[in-house]
């Protein structure tokens, strides 16, 4: 049976500074939450009314388990709300994106310019025969051109499918093939660590046998490839923009018309084409960006994700633009040309809201506190985290060294499938390090056993969402049975596939993926808990744990540990690490084996692939590794 005393003791609360509470959109989380739950549809309707619609809905929700329609029969276009609306409201000259690279080059694009670029590219796509409902794959660097490509598709109702530009040819091919994309938008290369990484050759290879791909639209960054154009049906991205009219009325989209397909990163197996639609996704990314990041008119916002992930879709492109703020987009890695580059840009641009992932925080932590200390980070007020559970060590480092006690941390739990934040504390609400926090407005979550019975407080079970929400996935592209599984696994609920526990105060702690769960002597232990405990040892930078079959205990724990700079592996240190885990979690969670490693296998989005460690350890088939980072 599950046991409460295995959970990390992270009950310390961090209260937001008074100025943040006083100026927040949401000053009283509890009362707004209550209101949102008592009448969910009225709550979302009120938010939807802050945006513009060509025609309003007949009904907010039509729920036909497990299929939902939100804002039934409403008409809009997400690009109208993300761009035209602001241009119309006097923000033509406001900067929408500052696209920067590792060398300090920047390109600013105003809302007016964005409208022009998106409209022209949209007309260009039409001229190539791309129409509403067609799929377009996008394999682009993390620059404003990627956002322009996505928005141009949305403008005409074409369904974009962005593939992260770090994926190799095989992974790209699977995704283009599955979506049957009519065109691929790409660039000659992307830049990482000062090097050019070619993209166009990868696209050419990937589509070699895919005759349904009619065109490649190529951003020829150094104008060097004119010979290639005829041969491969290649169209020049910027020529297409230049030669097309800037008048492109937005396609009238039904609220339920598809907006995009995004393949999940595949930490746990074959990627799924998660389908999101227009209206509900727009409303929820708008609302969560506004409330969770407390976005204000003059904020400078920076999400370090890549547009190739859901975080990039919802919180680089659609959510921030719907709120009309200025966003930074960076092409490059956090440690090049130096490990203070992010903080240098925070200072340079006066960033107010910063959103990143625990993997990046842990990486930057390894370089020490002196690096961020060199920069003026006083503009920061909200620091976000997403992608994995953030261990309290990393949370506190982020809080102290980056936020310096003046900024709040929002640890946002959500998924490609949920489209928008589901669990987090809003800035005005006290946060607990290592616990994502409270459900977002309109969202009711629970932690249950396999049959759907609620677990008592502090006991680990399956994290579920109890009701449909506007930005939920509508299906898996071409695989409705995979979609239905989300709602059938635990009857009546959306099953997230994560393990969690809820404390007496209603804070949710996500402890890992259900597929990674450890089962030691009858105790179910989340990987994140044990890893967090290991990282509490001051010598440890990062850890990953797996379960190995054990005749007596069911499973024994093996830990793979990366040490911080300046620490040497030793048997003695292994014992100290075990002591740390014993102190933090208790004897049951102490690893039987520890192996020191220099690297952990991660997905290209930076998540640890425990499945791979386990397969390797047990000499099993590794399965699909297309998402594995090199
Ligand atoms: P796949 O579903 O293909 O295996 P993935 O789950 O990594 O890939 P995403 O949708 O990008 O793809 O990630 C969502 C998952 O990331 C969540 O289910 C959860 O496991 C983890 N996650 C995201 N944010 C948080 C967070 N703040 N705290 C804990 N876990 C998080
Ligand atoms: Mg997932």
From TrEMBL:
GO terms for cellular component: cytosol. GO terms for molecular function: acetate-CoA ligase activity; AMP binding; ATP binding. Keywords: Acetylation, ATP-binding, Ligase, Nucleotide-binding. GO terms for biological process: acetyl-CoA biosynthetic process from acetate. SUPFAM superfamilies: Acetyl-CoA synthetase-like. It comes from the Bacteria. Residues 89-469 form the AMP-dependent synthetase/ligase domain. Belongs to the ATP-dependent AMP-binding enzyme family. This is Acetate--CoA ligase. The lineage of its organism: Bacteria, Pseudomonadati, Aquificota, Aquificia, Aquificales.
């Amino acid at each position: 049976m599950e046991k409460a005393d295995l959970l990390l003791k992270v009950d310390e609360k961090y209260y937001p500074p008074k100025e943040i509470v006083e100026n927040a959109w949401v000053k009283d989380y509890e009362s707004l939450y209550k209101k949102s739950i008592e009448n969910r549809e009225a709550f979302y309707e009120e938010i939807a009314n802050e945006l513009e619609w060509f025609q309003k809905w007949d009904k907010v929700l039509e729920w036909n388990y497990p299929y939902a329609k939100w804002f039934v029969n409403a008409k809009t276009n997400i690009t109208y709300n993300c761009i035209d609306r602001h241009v119309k409201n006097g923000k033509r000259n406001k900067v929408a994106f500052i696209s920067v690279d590792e060398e300090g080059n920047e390109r600013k694009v105003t809302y007016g310019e964005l409208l022009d670029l998106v409209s022209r590219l949209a007309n260009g796509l039409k001229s190539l025969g791309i129409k509403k409902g067609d799929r377009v794959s996008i394999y682009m660097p993390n620059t404003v051109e990627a956002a322009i490509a996505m928005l141009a598709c949305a403008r005409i109702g074409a369904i974009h499918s962005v593939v992260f530009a770090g994926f190799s040819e095989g992974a790209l091919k699977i995704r283009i093939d599955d979506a049957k994309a009519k065109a691929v938008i790409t660039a000659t290369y992307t830049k990482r660590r000062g090097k050019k990484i070619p993209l166009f050759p990868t696209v050419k290879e990937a589509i070699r046998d895919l005759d349904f791909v009619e065109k490649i639209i190529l951003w020829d960054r150094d104008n060097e490839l004119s010979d290639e154009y005829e041969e491969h049906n290649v169209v020049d991205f910027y020529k297409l923009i230049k030669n097309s009219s800037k008048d492109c009325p937005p396609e009238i989209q039904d609220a339920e018309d598809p907006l995009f397909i995004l393949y999940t990163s595949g930490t746990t197996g074959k990627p799924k084409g998660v389908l999101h639609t227009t209206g509900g996704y727009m409303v929820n990314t708008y609302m969560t960006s506004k409330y969770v990041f407390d976005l204000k008119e003059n904020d400078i916002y920076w999400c370090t994700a890549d547009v190739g992930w859901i975080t990039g879709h919802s919180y680089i492109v659609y959510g921030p633009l719907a709120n009309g703020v200025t966003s930074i987009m960076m092409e490059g890695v956090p440690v090049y040309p130096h490990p203070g580059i992010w903080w240098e840009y925070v200072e340079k641009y006066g960033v107010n809201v910063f959103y990143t992932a625990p993997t990046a925080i842990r990486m930057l932590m390894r370089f020490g506190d002196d690096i961020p200390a060199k920069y003026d980070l006083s503009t920061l007020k909200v620091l976000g985290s997403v992608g994995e559970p953030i261990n309290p060590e990393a949370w506190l480092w982020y809080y102290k060294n980056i936020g310096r006690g003046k900024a709040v941390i929002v640890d946002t739990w959500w998924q490609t499938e949920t489209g928008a934040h589901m669990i987090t504390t809003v800035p005005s609400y006290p946060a607990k390090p290592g616990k994502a926090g409270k459900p977002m407005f309109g969202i009711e979550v629970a932690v249950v056993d396999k049959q759907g019975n609620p677990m008592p407080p502090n006991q680990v079970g399956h994290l579920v969402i109890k009701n449909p929400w506007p930005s939920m996935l509508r299906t898996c592209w071409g695989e409705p049975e995979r979609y239905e599984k989300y709602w059938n696994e635990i009857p009546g609920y959306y099953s997230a596939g994560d393990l969690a526990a809820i404390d007496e105060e209603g804070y949710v702690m996500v402890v890992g993926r259900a597929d990674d769960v450890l089962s030691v002597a009858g105790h179910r232990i989340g990987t994140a808990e044990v890893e967090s405990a290991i990282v509490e040892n001051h010598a440890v930078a990062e850890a990953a744990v797996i379960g190995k079959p054990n005749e007596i205990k069911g499973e024994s724990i093996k830990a793979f540990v990366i040490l911080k700079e300046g620490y040497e592996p030793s048997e003695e240190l292994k014992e100290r690490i075990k002591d740390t885990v014993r102190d933090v979690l208790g004897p049951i969670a102490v690893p039987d084996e520890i192996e020191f490693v220099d690297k952990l296998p991660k997905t290209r989005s930076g998540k640890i692939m425990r499945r791979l460690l386990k397969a390797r350890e047990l000499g099993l088939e590794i399965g699909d590794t297309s998402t594995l980072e090199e």
